[in-house]
Amino acid sequence: MSLDDGDETLHFKRPSKQAFVRVDGGDCHSTSEVVCRIRNFKHVAKLGESLRKYIEAGDDRVVFSSTGYDDSQKKAVFAIGCYLADVIRDKHILLMTSGKDGEILKFFEASEVSSLDPNDLKPLSKARVYGFGSNLSIMDIDEMLAVGSQRDQVLDEVIAAVKSYDIVLWNTPSINIMRQNLHFFHRLLYSFKIITLIVARNTLTTTDVEDIKEFYESHGISLKGAIFSPLSPENKDKK
Q1: Domain residue spans in the chain?
Q2: Counting beta carbons within 10 angstroms of the beta carbon of residue 85, is it exposed (0 to 12), middle (13 to 18) or buried (19 or more)?
Q3: Helices 151-164 and 182-189 meet at what angle, rounded to 10?
Q4: Fold of the CATH domain 44-238
Q5: Fewer CB under 10 Å: which end of the chain, C or N?
C-alpha cells in the first residue's frame, strides 16, 4: 500500500483452528482465534469502503488485475477482503487467488479445507475452499488448473462457489495467463461484474490499461477504479 499510516489487528472467530497471520510477514503464533494484522489500515479501510458502495449496489463479484505488480495485487486484495469480512460480518466472502506464495501462504496455513458452499450444503469434490474465519474463505485457482482432465468438473464447482457466496473478490492472474487458459476462465469470467486495477506507477502505460480494460469488457466486466501502488522492490534502483 502507498500510505504508511499504522497497523490494525482484526479478529475472526475460528474455534477449530488456532493461528496468527501478519499481512506484512512474520511467523504464525497460536491463539484462540484467527487474527489478521493489516498494514496501512486507514488506506485499506478507505479502499474497502469505496468498494463496499459498489457491493451494496449489487456489484458483489469483483475482479482485481494489475499492470505487472502481482505481489501488491495479492496483498491489496487480501487486505481489503479481511477488512470487508470484518465490517460486513453477516455476509460470506470468498477470496480467489493464484498460488500460495509469499505472505499469502500464511492465510492458507491459518485456514483449513472447508465445504464448497458457505452454508455447508454439499461436500467438496475436486475444488478446494479454505475457511479463514467464520465468514471468510479463500480458494487457489492454481489448484484448479492442476487437475488436468477433470478441469470441467472443477470449473463447475468453482462457478457454483462463486454463486453461493455473498461477495467474491478475485485476485486474477495476468491477462496473458488468462488468454492461455481461456477455455477454463471463459465461463468463470462471466460470473463477475466489475474490475479494479492495482497499478504500479512506474510500469503504468496507456497500452497496458487499455489491454486489460478491453479484455475484461469483452467478458461483460466494467472497470470501476484503480489502486496506485509504489515502486516494486526490483525497480527501485531504476529511478
Answers
A1: 44-238
A2: buried
A3: 20
A4: Rossmann fold (3.40.50)
A5: C
